[in-house]
Write a structure and sequence with these properties.
This protein is mainly beta. The chain has one domain. Helix content is about 0%, strand content about 30%. The protein has no helices and three strands. Strands 1-2-3 form a three-stranded antiparallel sheet, with no helix packed on it. A hairpin with a 5-residue loop joins strand 1 and strand 2. The radius of gyration is 21 Å and the shape is rod-shaped. The model has no long low-confidence stretch (mean pLDDT about 85).
Length: about 80
């Protein structure tokens, strides 16, 4: 099998930043409504997966997939 370690192939790394903006609206002393906007991978950097490490594959050593692009979500949360 040779003398290289098991993690010989590795991907280009992950450059991922998430952000959330929220605002609380007081309804009563013990109740509030929270408005939220959340962004995942806010700068929309390409998140490449690791190369194919299967020596029997025709895609050996190739990066053939990516992770999710920028995702935004909005929500209202009732806190009591």
């Amino acid at each position: 099998m040779g003398n290289c370690n098991g993690a010989f192939f590795h991907g280009p790394g992950i450059n991922n930043f998430d952000m959330a903006l929220l605002k609380n609206f007081k309804i009563r002393e013990s109740k509030a409504l929270q408005s939220r906007v959340e962004a995942f991978n806010i700068w929309n950097h390409a998140q490449f997966d690791s190369p194919d490490g299967n020596i029997d594959s025709t895609a050996f050593g190739l990066v053939t997939s990516t992770n999710a692009p920028r995702i935004l979500q909005m929500a209202l949360r009732f806190m009591f």
